[in-house]
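Worked problem 6 (solution included).
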Amino acid sequence: MGLGVTTPLPGFADASPTFAQPFDMLLACHARTRRSLHLLDRLRKRIDQHGHDAHTREAAGDVLRYFRKAAPLHHEDEERHVFPALHDSTDSELNLAVDGLQADHARLEALWRAIEPVLRDWAGEPPQAPVEPVTHTRIAEFAQRYFTHMALEEVAIFPTALAHMNEQSLSAMSADMERRRVGPAAEIIKGARRAATGPNSSETPAMRTSRRGYLRRRRVL
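Solution. The predicted structure is:
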């Protein structure tokens, strides 16, 4: 199966996937990654033009939390389940793509280690240093590499891996993804689902305040 052949993933239109739909969960994570990258881009531009304020500090904290917690879990999902499903492929182009995506994970993690201290500074109390040229360059590379990486996965890798997996392997993938997210990370996912589907009686006041604050900061930035 060449990389130019695509198969739509079932349930793509579902705004609130569950762990029973592991590839839909991966796509939902990509959507959150894109939102976080766009927020990071707006954040660096706002700091450059207007300096720091409460909104930029809180937005920096949002980006930090996402790429510290959710992004590593997502990479691990792919390394543990998606890429192994393609190891026996005889398609050389596909194999090269998988090798490149695995190398991308290492490069993205290295870029994040360089960006994270800057975001910690931005999330702290003033005074913070201005945005240095090297930070602009690293953030731009981080975002572009992520966008290219996710596009390839969505067009070719996820559909092909899904076609190679049976019900048993999909069930094991679902159980593993859920197990590794038990605890605080699970609450983040549940909160994201509630935000997508509207107010819910099970949403606590603290969760509601956090969600509204995030949406407000996105509008400001």
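Discussion: The domain at 22-191+200-220 is CATH 1.20.120.520 (Four Helix Bundle (Hemerythrin (Met), subunit A)).
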